[in-house]
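Sequence, please.
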């Protein structure tokens, strides 16, 4: 469910980004950029943002877990056990960061294809 919400957030960001860069995309298409290249450009830019967001999000999440879990255990007057803190291993953290890229690319595909299919004349006329 969280993945779907994240993908919808990325979808919204890409739609706004594509509308903001509409004139630039029209100019690129007018000088010979193919719709496939426009799609790849938009998806790649969102994939890069997904990578950065995934890395920062995973690092902050692990840090927050390291701070919050012991505080909760102390508040419950319990001892902090190693299995409570050692939840995230390197392969799991890498998969979570990779999920950021996958979510970003999945959320970017539909708006990027829509922006690529927009006729050049319609884009330049609306400016």
């Amino acid at each position: 469910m969280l993945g779907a919400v994240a993908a919808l957030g990325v979808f919204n960001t890409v739609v706004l980004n594509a509308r903001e860069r509409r004139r630039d995309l029209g100019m690129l298409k007018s000088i010979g950029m193919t719709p496939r290249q426009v799609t790849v450009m938009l998806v790649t830019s969102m994939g890069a943002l997904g990578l950065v967001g995934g890395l920062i999000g995973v690092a902050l999440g692990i840090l927050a877990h390291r701070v919050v879990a012991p505080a909760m255990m102390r508040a419950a007057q319990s001892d902090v056990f190693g299995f409570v803190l050692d939840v995230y291993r390197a392969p799991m953290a890498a998969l979570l960061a990779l999920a950021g890229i996958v979510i970003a690319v999945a959320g970017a595909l539909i708006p990027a294809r829509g922006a690529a299919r927009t006729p050049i004349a319609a884009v330049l006329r609306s400016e």
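The helical segments are 2-20, 22-30, 35-75, 82-85, 90-117, 120-126.
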